[in-house]
Structures
1.
Amino acid sequence: MSPVLLSGRRVGLYLAAWAPVAGLLAWLLVRLGSAGWAGALATALPLAGVYAFVCLSSSYLCRALPLRASDLPRTLFVLAGAAAVSAALWLVLGEGWTRVLQGVGLSPNALAGYQRGRPALFGIGVLLFLLAAAAHYVKQTYDASRAAEKRALQFQLLSRETELGALRAQIHPHFLFNALNSISALTSSDPPGARSLCILLGDFLRRSLSLGARPRVPLADELALVERLLAVEQVRFGERLSSRFDVQEATRECLVPPLVLQPLVENAVTHGIASVLEGGEVRVAARLAGARLELTVENPRDPQAARRRGAGVGLDNVRKRLAALYGRDAQVLAQPLETAYRTTLRFPAELPKS
């Protein structure tokens, strides 16, 4: 069924669009001496309305005969034949209606004038049918373009979600590798510490899995998870590890990608604190900079220490995730300072919808 027929409003608008055609037919009949304006309009309005619905049949032909360069001659031939047949049938209906009007005395000279105008009316009928077919082809092309854009967007979103899922899946194995190494080292030197670390690790993984399943989490939840991560590492490093949180209260409600800080804090401990003999402090800061959220993780470092293997995995993971989520609106800065290492994340601040 044609989309025009799906609602009364569409039918009304479609018939209104044919009003100029009815006016043209009435003018032609008046010029041919068929009748005055009253009789001409009585003839033209029903004819235009009927032919408006006849031309809707061109949509079925357009769907059955899509425009292809290889089939173009055949398509044009079929459309021209359909236009000629439709115009001929329209002329027959028009002549019958004219006879009715003349019979009731509404338009005494209607039939003679109509017969004189048959060649022009036939040409108008063919032209109108072909114009209707062209309009349907334009609509088909537009609909196909919109559908292709929609499919491309869906594919892009699916690709992005797949990429984000793969990147998030890398976080837990990377952390578990380090945590299990710590447990292994403590089993012989500090069995109670190893048991404590196992309990802390279990609590941390339970919470991280819960957060990681959500597309966005409040920064307050992400910071709570980081605190548990530092508690896990505290068992291994003892007094060598301390932490400080400088968090603007307004940022705690901001929504952030889950597990976005964990890799950075883990790097700060594994590749920062571990390389400094006396240890040091891991500082986590959050503030609003205009419409952007700025997160900073800073740790001490030994400039002379050799770069440890895997030092860039977590940071690269975060950079890719933010790029996939925010594009150019996200910024990741890694700054090796003289005795410290600072990583800063900037991306649009997002508040939960009320």
2.
Amino acid sequence: MAAKSVALIVAHPDDETLWAGGTILNHADWKWYIVTLCRGSDPDRAPKFHKTLKILGAEGNMGDMDDGPDQLPLTDIELQRTILKLLPGKAYDLIITHNPSGEYTRHLRHEETGRAVIHLWNDKILESPELWTFAYSDGGGAYPPQASKSAGILYRLPGSLWEKKYDIITRIYGFDENSFEARAATREEAFWQFTEAADAINWLNKMKQ
């Protein structure tokens, strides 16, 4: 049986590990292709991303979309074009991306990325039998991001996998153990799962209301 091909589309290098690192490590037989839309020219973060890809046994690519402190909105067209340019193909067994409401309060690039991927899937520009979005919440900023208990897919990482995930965040990416990123590298990972694009679009539209 052929290995499952997976496109993991995130906004920043480290998002792949924070929200899905354990899942990637747990499915080492899958063919992972990870794209990050920002920080491609970052002399600090870009080499760390490529080092992380090797540890995760994945291939990947980096974009260089605006990620300045002002977080000016990007258009859906800009995001979609960048995603398609970074991916090596348009058909996968599974696509994974950000939740359009973000994983914490709040990061515009996460939200924009999730919306763009859902629209590409709905328009059949990206093809896949299913799409997962990260399922985390922080209670409006009241606590570090936690996996949503009601998500369709909820997985508690074995200690060994969580340690590898945490090691990537702290040793490879270099975040201090007291940093937001280290505290967000939770032992539970969760995803909302869609097999029908119409359901994902309806879900997205409800968020806008």
